[in-house]
């Protein structure tokens, strides 16, 4: 009888542990979802910045063309065109860096999605395990009650003898 109580206590502890782990994994999934949302916002921000930079590059390229025409009329216009080319080159480098950052963030987002899926599967497995343990616990509790009733009936019969 003490063994049954000990076993029931152990099953309760295991059920509590499983529930705690499930909560922990749910928390981790929420954290990953929050990180995922932050990454998406960062990607959106960088995409917008990239679009603004590309528009600025286009404007500056138009200015460069205009200044090249003026450069033919004077040496001063030539130096301005050179300055604009440097600005364009810097902006293009910034645009390339933004593109690289976006690609890296997309990869991180993909990895976060993979991890999130992994943790979701773990949570599901833990929930299934918990359900099985609960079922086993209920089954054992029923067996215990039946055995206790049989024992009580037996004790009563012996007492009547």
From TrEMBL:
UniProt keyword terms in alphabetical order: Coiled coil
Region described as Disordered: 1-22, 67-88
Compositionally biased tracts (Basic and acidic residues): 13-22
Entry annotated with the keyword Coiled coil: yes
Alphabetical list of InterPro entries matching this protein: Tropomyosin
UniProt keyword Coiled coil present: yes
Domain of life according to the entry: Eukaryota
Pfam families: Tropomyosin (PF00261)
Protein name, entry field: Tropomyosin
Annotated organism of origin: Zopfia rhizophila CBS 207.26
Organism taxonomic ancestry: Eukaryota, Fungi, Dikarya, Ascomycota, Pezizomycotina
